[in-house]
Automatic annotation (TrEMBL):
It comes from Chitinophaga agri. This is YjaG family protein. InterPro entries: DUF416, YP001051499.1-like_dom_sf.
């Protein structure tokens, strides 16, 4: 996580907290939207629509519709226990979990529009993304290294995929601190290519 993130976010206004949260959530969502559509019965179009609406609501005086949007997105969070097939392989289950996390993050970001707990909602979106990256990196390492795999938090922290995401988050915060409100331009998918191949050694 970015250094002193909570302190940094506490200095931002309510609208900027939502901008940061939405950029985090949408970046994760666009990375795993296809997985979500392929693995689950949820309504990806609804999530896309509510993300667009959420960005439009950031500057609105009346955000009452955010509560309904939040509940509708929450209803789209898949329960992996209902989809046994995603556990067919370790890699498939990791991607299914990542897609689930993406919807949870969108839910948290939309909640930031009306919850009164924008700092915590924003932190949650960052935490979800970083936990997802951790999962993917370690799943890949487990597959490649087999029985010799040993979790290494320093490896995860320094991995290119994690560093790219932290840099993206920092760019959005720097822009907000510079009074740049066009934060959606910092929405971009995770650098999955940085994971490398998953061919076992």
């Amino acid at each position: 996580m970015l250094e002193n993130l909570e302190e940094t976010l506490e200095a931002l206004g309510e609208q900027d907290l939502s901008r940061y949260a939405l950029a985090n959530a949408e970046s994760l969502w666009i990375t795993f939207r296809d997985v979500y559509e392929n693995e689950f019965d949820g309504d990806a179009a609804l999530i896309n629509k509510h993300l667009d609406s959420a960005w439009a609501l950031v500057d609105a005086e009346d955000r009452t519709e955010a509560a309904e949007m939040e509940e509708e997105v929450k209803s789209q969070i898949p329960d992996l226990d209902d989809y046994d097939e995603v556990y067919a392989t370790e890699w498939r289950s990791a991607h299914a979990s990542a897609a689930q996390n993406a919807v949870i993050s969108v839910w948290q970001a939309i909640a930031s529009l009306h919850s009164g707990e924008g700092v915590q909602n924003a932190i949650e979106t960052a935490s979800i993304t970083e936990s997802t990256i951790d999962l993917l990196i370690n799943t890949r390492q487990s597959i490649v290294e087999g029985d010799s795999f040993d979790y290494d938090d320093e490896f995860v922290e320094n991995h290119q995929m994690m560093q790219d995401e932290l840099a993206r988050q920092q760019e959005s915060i720097d822009a907000l601190q510079g009074d740049d409100k066009d934060i959606r331009k910092f929405v971009r998918p995770l650098s999955l290519d940085a994971l490398g191949s998953i061919t076992p050694e």
